[in-house]
Amino acid sequence: MAARPLVARQPNERLQALIQEAGCSNAGLARRVNMCGAEHGLDLRYDKTSVARWLRGQQPRGRAPAIIAEALGRKLGRTVTIDEIGMANGKNLASGVGLQFSPTVLGAIEQVCELWRSDVGRRDFLSGSSVAASALVEPSRDWLISAPDAQVARQAGPRVGQADVAAVRSMTQALTDLDHQFGSGHVRPVLVHYLNSVVSGLLAGSYRESTGRELFAAVARLTELAGYMAVDTGQPGLAQRYYIQSLRLAQAAGDRGYGGYVLAASMSHLAAQLGNPREIAQLARAAQEGARGQVTPRVEAMFHAAEARGHALLGDARAADAATGRAIASMERCDAGSGDDPVWIRHFDEAYLADELAHCHRDLGQAEQAARCAEQSLAGHPESRARRRAIGYVLLATAQVQQREVEQACATGMKAVELLETLRSNRGAEYLDDLQQRLEPFRDEAVVREFGARLELQQAA
C-alpha cells in the first residue's frame, strides 16, 4: 500500500516503544496487521520492510493507522490509539478529536479512547478548545438517520463480563454522588483517569453481544457524566466532544432512550449556556422523534421541558407554554413504583421539572411563576443536591429581583453563596455572576453593595 512521508520525516519513536513493549518483531507486527485488516475487509500485504519504513517516519494511508493501533492493542491487551503509535495527523487531532459521530463501532471505540487519552495527556489543548458550532446539531442528525449497529461483540483481548459492567455502573453512581455534593472540580480528574486507564481496556476486550451492549450503555453514561463535569469546570468545548461520543456509544448500546437523553438533557443545556436557543429546541425535538415509543413518561417529561427552555429563550411564550404543558402532563403519568424508569432518568422528579420550568419563566420575564417554581424545586431537592439547591436559590433570587424585591433577593442569593462555598463548580459561579448583573441597576443600595462584597471575598478565596 502506498505511503506518504510525515511532514518532518522523524523516526517514529512512539511506534518503536510500543513494538518493544509488545515483544513483536517487525515481521510479527506486519502479520498481525494483515490479519486484523482482513477482519475489516481490507487486503493488506505489509511485511517487515513496511514496518521498518513506518519506524523511519513514513505513514500508511487510509484506515491502516487505525488497524496498526488495533493490532498492537490486541497484543498488549489494552486500547492503543493512533496518537499513541505516532500516526495521528496533528492538525486533525487538534481540531477534530471527539467531534465525529463515527459510522462504525470500531471507529467509535477509537474516537472515544482518543478523546480520553487526549484529555489526560493534552489537558492544555483540550481545556482551551472552543465549541464547534456546526457540531451542536449535526450529531443529532447522524443519530437520527444511522442504522442500528448490527454487532458489537469482539473476540480479541481479555474477557469482559457482567462483573466489569457492574463495576462501571457502580463507579458512575459513586462519582455522581460526589459531584452532586462537592462539585466537579474535585471529581472530574478521577473520572477521566478511570476512563483512560480502565474503561478503554474494557472496550478493547472480548465480549459477547449482550455483554457488549450493556458495556456500551454503561460507558455512554460515564462519558456523558465526564461531559457534564467539563461544563461544570468551565470547559464547554471539551464537554461537547464528550457528549458526541456518549451519543455514539448509546447508539452502539442500542439504547435510543439514552441517546435522546444526551441530546435533550446534555447537548441542549450546553446550547443554552452558549446562548443558542434555536438549537436547544431542535435538539429536544430530535430526541423526541428519535426515541418515540421507546421511553417512559418521565423521559418524555424531560424532553418536553428541554424544548420549553429553548422556546422561552427565543421569547416564544406560546410555544414554551405548550411544551411546558406536555412536560407536566407526562410527569403526571409517571409511576415511580413501577420500576419501568431506567436508572439514568430516576433523578428527574418533580423538583427537577420545577427547576427547568423556573428557568423558562425567568427567561420569559414571568417573575411570579419563576419564583413559585423555584420554591417548589427547593422544597423537593434534598440537601445532598447541593449544587442544584444553590442554583434554585439563584433562580428564586432572580425572580425576586424581577419583582424589585431587592433586599429579599440579596438574602436569598446569600444562601446560594454559602452553598457554593462548599463546592468547586463553575456553573454555580456563572449563575451568581448573572444574578450580580441583574442587581447592577440597584448598585447604590447598601444591601446590594454588601452582597457584591461577599461575592468578591468568595472569588478571592
From TrEMBL:
Taxonomy, superkingdom: Bacteria
Descriptive protein name: Transcriptional regulator
Source species: Streptomyces misionensis
Lineage summary: Bacteria, Bacillati, Actinomycetota, Actinomycetes, Kitasatosporales
